TrEMBL record:
Keyword Kinase (UniProt): no
Domain 2Fe-2S ferredoxin-type: 275-370
Keywords linked to the UniProt accession: Cell membrane, Membrane, Transmembrane, Transmembrane helix
SMART domains documented for this protein: CYCc (SM00044)
Membrane-topology annotation of the record: Multi-pass membrane protein
GO biological process, one term: intracellular signal transduction
Name recorded for this polypeptide: Adenylate/guanylate cyclase domain-containing protein
Chain ranges of the Guanylate cyclase domain: 391-523
Amino acid sequence: MLQQTRLYTGLIIAAFVIPHLLNHSVGLISLTWMEAALEYFIGFWHHPVATLMLYGSVLTHFLLALWSLYHRTTLRMPFWQLSQLVLGLSIPPLILAHVIGARLSHELLGTTATYEATVQAIWNSEYGVLRQTSLVLVVWIHLMLGLHYWLRLKPDYRRWIAFWQLLATLVPLLALMGFYRVGLTLADQAVEPAAASGYETGIDDSTSPAAGGYDDYGGYEDGYPSGAVVSKSTKTEVDQTLDWVRNTMPLVFWGSLTLTLVLRGARLGWSARRARVRVRLPAQNQLRARQGQTLLEALREAGIEHSSVCGGRGRCTTCRVRIMEGLDQLPPADDTERQALEGVQADDDVRLACQLRLTSDLSVVPLIPYQQRFSYLRKPGGVEGIEQQVTVLFIDLRGSTALAEARLPYDVVFILNQFFAEMASALEETDGHYAQFNGDGLMALYGLDGDFEQGARQAIRGAQRMLHRLDGINQRLEKELQQPLRVGIGIHSGEAIVGTMGPPSAPIRSALGDTVNTAARLEGQTKHLGVPLLLSRHSAEVAGLALETLEQRQLPLRGRDQLLDVILVKEPAKLAW
């Protein structure tokens, strides 16, 4: 719940920051356009509901950051996560003056902010441009880190990553360029300092116009926007309010941060007195950890690398481990962990290291290789990949055992090399992807580019090309073979988990799932049915085959409760669309 709240409040803040910076970039056109865009921006965000939503999100986001810092048992974390934390905590001191000058003073005086007054005041103040530039960059980098490490788990984001990186670079660059252009233009038109030095002299009635300069706090000189007309009594009240905010808010921020760190230190000190738990890992690695800290924190504190794509927020499940011993002593999964594990259909003995609080000794086995942590997604089986509609083709060489018994090993290798070379050429000709090798057969994937129908047609053409090339091998090796080589091919289409699999040192792009299992079992049935090609009716329909003249049947397959409609193809070369 807290993680979701932190995410949603961050998205609300992003919805404010991104249009705000885009408004800055309009300054590259003209100040007039900049002011016109600002009217729409203010019209929305100055509405009471929007204001409450924005500042409520800012406060909630800050408090949740302190809560997260308090609960951390170690400050060892990935560099990106440390950067996001440091940048986030740098924002309040940088933005306070801007909020006072650009929003609070206007609210107190009942006026509306303008780019002309705000930019001119910033530009005329000492270090004002540097402070504002730093604020833009710090806020933007913090925001982009958060969005990136949330969105990078989503396939559409990764597919367009170059585009998003370009936008992430252009938005702050154009915003600062617009700000600089307007600032330089207004600086050339600036009035003499004496003409804007506070209340006009010689006025002794109840009102006077305020100045537009910036003071050392980064707020408007005397706290007022340029052109505002206020009474002397109002001036005194507003001065007192602004002074109180300027003096109090930094104390609140630094006091909150200091109190959080002090309470965190006290909690860790008390925790250190408690009994430690023993965590056993593969390869006889063992560590002792404090009770109450998460398994991921314990691993990081011990300097042990462990996958955690989302940074330990329960979003990606790449930190999941299998509990080998001590499962019955662990606390039950909370809502965040339970929902994440249900999303990958994890077994009961699988837990998330980032959410699992240590209470007793246990033995675990990490399920995701650290070396491949950036590519793993929340998919069943601990496999890196995405769910995708593909067509799977299995081909197996019949009689390979008898072939090996009748020939010398080198002769068998020669024949198999000829076979696989021709099958690989058939795959290349039909845009198939070699996905798996099993000694005397292989698995191929079609439709990886996202065109499901075209993939199914190409798989059938691939089967035709394989059988054609097999005829060529039989003709070339006719004198060496006692009987022609024969194969069985099974084809099925549907959803599968497609991605990089296997050991970290030799990963391959392959697929898992019921679609793959069904294609493999169809290939196994070709031997019993006496046909070279057996494909599911679903694949034939997706490919657009003419089914009227084809032999159709319903087959029971191991692992399936229902019969599967299949097409028996005795002469694949005659298949037509």
